[in-house]
Write a structure and sequence with these properties.
Strand content: 15-25%
Number of strands: 8
Strand order of the largest sheet: 2-1-5-8
Low-confidence stretches: none
Structural class: alpha/beta
Distance between the termini: 16 Å
Number of domains: 2
Helix content: 25-40%
Number of helices: 8
Largest sheet: 4 strands, parallel
Mean pLDDT: 92
C-alpha cells in the first residue's frame, strides 16, 4: 500500500478547543499512536455551521412518535440547527472520497454514533445518533466510522483499524482504473476475512460477482465494497493485517 490512510477526526479529540464550553477532549491514543500511521484531518460540525465557541449547548429531541429527531439549543429550543447539521453532513460526504475512515466524539448531539441522549416526551433515552454522523453513515455506509470510546477495546480497535486499511487498499485500487480482474483478485485476497457466521453477506457477494462478466463494473463496485465492509464488522484481523 503506497498511501497513508486518511482519517477524519472530531477536532476536540485532537485537542482543539472547539467544544461548546470552549474546551477539548484530547485523545492521546489518536494524537500519539494513530498519528504515526494515518493522516488525521479534523472537523467540527458545530463550528462548521457557524456556531461560536463557546456556545450554548444543544441536545437532541424527538417528535411525538419518536421520529423527526432535531438538534436544538437546550436554553432556547426554538433555535433549531437540524437542517444545517444535515446539510454540512452532505457537503462533508461530497469531499471525503479519499478518507478511509472517521473517528467521532461519543455522546455528541452532532457527532455521536450510538447511544446519544434523545429527549422524547420529556424522558431521555440513549437511542440516538448525532445528526452529522447520522448523515455520514447514511450516505457512506461502507466507510469505517467509530467513536473514540471504541478505541479502548482492543478487539474493536483492531477491527476498526483493519477495516480502515482494507478501505484504503480499495481506494488505491479504484484510483488505478479498476478492472474486473483486479476486483476478483481483491476479493480473493479479502474474502477469507469475512467471519463464517456472515453467511448471507458471503452469498450476496458470490451472487454479485458471479454475474460480473455481464454487468457494468461501475454498477458492481459500489455494491461490492458496501457488502464487503459490512461483512468485515465482526472480523478479528490477523496481526499482519493491522500494523502495530
Amino acid at each position: 500500500m503506497d498511501a497513508r490512510p486518511k482519517l477524519g477526526i472530531s477536532g476536540c479529540l485532537l485537542g482543539q478547543k472547539v467544544r461548546y464550553d470552549g474546551g477539548h477532549k484530547l485523545n492521546r491514543y489518536v494524537t500519539e499512536t494513530l498519528a504515526e500511521f494515518f493522516d488525521l484531518v479534523s472537523f467540527c460540525p458545530e463550528q462548521a455551521i457557524g456556531l461560536p465557541t463557546p456556545r450554548n449547548p444543544i441536545r437532541l429531541i424527538a417528535g411525538p412518535f419518536g421520529a423527526d429527531v432535531r438538534a436544538v439549543e437546550i436554553e432556547d429550543p426554538a433555535k433549531d440547527y437540524s437542517e444545517r447539521l444535515d446539510r454540512f453532513g452532505r457537503e462533508f460526504v461530497g469531499r471525503i472520497g479519499d478518507f478511509s475512515g472517521c473517528i467521532v466524539k461519543k455522546n455528541s448531539p452532532s457527532c455521536g454514533k450510538d447511544g446519544v441522549k434523545v429527549l422524547e416526551r420529556g424522558n431521555p433515552s440513549r437511542r440516538g445518533s448525532g445528526l452529522f454522523t447520522a448523515r455520514l453513515l447514511a450516505d457512506r455506509p461502507e466507510l469505517p466510522v467509530e467513536e473514540e470510546g471504541t478505541l479502548a477495546d482492543p478487539l474493536l480497535r483492531e477491527n476498526f483499524i483493519g477495516r480502515v486499511y482494507v478501505m484504503c487498499r480499495w481506494q488505491e485500487l479504484s484510483a488505478r482504473a479498476l478492472t474486473k480482474k483486479k476486483l476478483l483478485d481483491f476479493h480473493a485476497r479479502h474474502r477469507s476475512l469475512i467471519p463464517n457466521d456472515e453467511e448471507e453477506i458471503n452469498l450476496e457477494l458470490s451472487r454479485l460477482l458471479s454475474g460480473l462478466e455481464s454487468i457494468e463494473l461501475a454498477s458492481v463496485a459500489p455494491n461490492y465494497i458496501r457488502l464487503l465492509m459490512h461483512g468485515l464488522r465482526g472480523t478479528v484481523f490477523k496481526s499482519e493485517m493491522v500494523p502495530e
